[in-house]
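Task: encode each sequence below as structure tokens.

Item 1
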Amino acid sequence: MKLSPRAETPLFLIGFMASGKTTVGRIVATRLGWRFHDLDQIVCDAAGRSVARIFADEGEAGFRLREIEALRAATRLQSAVIATGGGAACNDSNLSLMLASGRVVALSVTPEEVLRRVGADSGRPLLSPSTSAAALLATREVFYTRAHHRVDTAGKSPEEVAGEVLGLIDAGQP
């Protein structure tokens, strides 16, 4: 199934942390002439704090409530590419909303590649020495597989991944 670049529906990029959602999303948006939005940044701007600070102050539950609110607003955007946080799609309601509101492309990455990209001391609230990337990715994979399409990022530059994402879009459609 090809995606159409209908301006009335957003394109959501989902996937595990460090899969390239933000970097690839910016490239895709630029090439389409669309706006780019990073869902985590929308949450941070609304809260006036970083993701790490929100997690510290409100816990994961508080962050996820803020994320749901930001996602609901993002589904109404037009001509937009939205890079979600790694856990945004790992909630049935969120994922269903994205699937119904736009096109969803999952970017896949291996646990080894995640650690290579973010380093051992990533500062990411849900990735710590006690929580392995492999274990967290395994719990999230069931959600990522429900995307309309999937693009493997292994061994590819962000430009190559963006090209594959764009290849899913049928430019001949209005």
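Item 2
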Amino acid sequence: MSLSPGDSLTSHNFGLQIDGVMVEYLAEVSGLSMEQDVITYQQNTANGQNKVVNLPGVKKNGTCTVVRGMTQSAAFTEWINQSIAGQMSSARKNASIIMMDFQNTP
């Protein structure tokens, strides 16, 4: 789809779903990362040659920074406050960050 004269490009919009329910539109998402250690060890093959082997190690959690949009959902605020207060039984939920296109479809 091409732009018509006078149309402008829009920036990406992000949505936050908690347990499958869209609760917040986000203005910015940054810092999505994941790290994993590498375990390197040496072993001898059956014919006596030295062989270096790499295996996947421990996964490390990353940090995700979100900037809230104009909606300022009460459900999102409540979820954050529950985790800060240590109410982990009710705060543990599945969350997804979804990138939307210019028509707000995932």
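Check on item 2: Residues 43 and 49 are 8 Å apart (CA to CA). The chain has a mean pLDDT of 82.
End of task.
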